[in-house]
Amino acid sequence: MLTAGNASGDGTAQLQFHGSLDLQLDELAAFGLHVNPGASLSLPAAFTLNGVSLTNLGSIQGVSDLTIRGGNLVNRGVLSPLSSLALVAGPPNSLVRLTAVGNTAAQPAGTYDIGTLLVSAAQRMELEGDASTGTGVTLLAGEVTIQGTGRVSADGF
């Protein structure tokens, strides 16, 4: 279990782990995380990724309201269905990449269930298809707001 009392850093490192990790922080800014295949990350219902990277190849559970503030999220695993996903300004700009090999729980591969999506100015979301299989990404969203120079793109990257 990581808590505010035992998690520190300057934001440049990334902790890679196997097994299960219970993160008892509302915000992660000290270091990034890499969830390896078969690993499980438990987050609080409301969570902010602040200026660091989170790469998911396993599963992320518990979070329903996710804010990316100047951080990067790459999902190639299973993500909890999200009530809201917000990409907001922070140093540097925010990036979320949802891939065709990942999904939200209870959805087929490449399908993401997000109630409300906000992409603020200068932030970006990428929907990465799989060019080798021709599989794309499906975004099931109740409400999508893209502000100013914010962008959502879909490509094979």
Give a quick set of tags describing it:
157 residues; mainly beta; seven-stranded parallel beta sheet; six-stranded parallel beta sheet; 18 strands; globular
Topology, please?
Layout: E1 14-17, E2 20-22, E3 27-28, E4 32-35, E5 40-42, E6 46-50, E7 53-56, E8 59-61, E9 65-69, E10 72-75, E11 78-79, E12 82-88, E13 95-99, E14 103-104, E15 111-119, E16 124-128, E17 138-146, E18 151-155
Parallel strand pairs: 1-4, 2-5, 3-6, 4-7, 5-8, 6-9, 7-10, 8-11, 9-12, 10-13, 11-14, 12-15, 13-16, 15-17, 16-18
Task: Describe this structure as you would to a colleague.
With 157 residues, the protein is mainly β. The protein contains no helices and 18 strands. It has strands at residues 14-17, 20-22, 27-28, 32-35, 40-42, 46-50, 53-56, 59-61, 65-69, 72-75, 78-79, 82-88, 95-99, 103-104, 111-119, 124-128, 138-146, 151-155. The strands form three sheets. It has a seven-stranded parallel beta sheet, with no helix packed on it. It is globular. It starts with 13 loop residues before the first strand and ends with a strand. The model has no long low-confidence stretch (mean pLDDT 93).
